[in-house]
Amino acid sequence: MRIFKTILDFYIESSLHVALAVYALIRITFFKLNIPYDEPVAYFGFYGTIVGYNFIKYDELARVKKIVLTLKFKYIIALSVFSFFASIFYFFQLFFLTQLIGVLVLLITVLYTLPLFPKMDNMRNWSGIKIYLVAIAWVGVTVVLPVVNGEIDFTFQIAFKCFQRFLFVFILMLLFEIIDLQFDAVPLKTIPQRMGVQKTKISSYLLIVFFLLLEFLIPNFNSIQFVISFLVSLLLLFFTFYANSNRDKYYTSLWVESVPFFWLVLLLFFG
Known about the structure:
Elements: H1 2-13, H2 16-32, H3 39-63, H4 71-91, H5 96-113, H6 130-149, H7 156-179, H8 191-195, H9 197-213, H10 223-241, H11 249-255, H12 259-270
Helix pairs in contact: 2-3, 2-6, 2-12, 3-4, 3-5, 5-6, 6-7, 7-9, 9-10, 10-12
């Protein structure tokens, strides 16, 4: 049991789980927009997420020397280095415009962690902005990159998908902010800090309903995909209802981040 927990902790702390969630959302975009499977985009998103998230999580700790080089952390460094070269390999297989968008997402990641100017906080510490930055970055990687590299015209349907994906990620991030309420510094002014947990949950419920109702606006409405989106919405409602600041790290970092896998599996089998 201890070995299993060690492996599970490494899987989460190395950002493998969140990277697979990004990969799943990219595959969902392929499926929803009838884009042929594009390996460079899918794997650039996967490996780039490992690099970006590990940079965000461990850069500041490394700079203030709060990280002990345990065996687990050495493995995380090794995985991050491998993922960096793998993401570079797939980056050069993307079209030029796709590369520009990838660089823009990278810039957001860097500015999220490092201050733009000396004596200025990084964007992570800008009050109330964190949740929007993350949602925009995820939309860029999981929707815009597949569309641009697939040379798909940017139509109303694509813009619609970007907005719906933004809502989905925003709802997930609200869950993280509720769970992290006891750890977030007051100046961050997260949504639960400003509105309280119950009002944040009510807002989340409304956003989930809105996310589902948007399915009716999709051209060529598909009843099976609506049922799948309904099941995904139910899962989001379930996680939101039971979210509180006393939940352990596995609640969000494992189970909540598994929602994209659930969505993808349903689409692959029934969509």
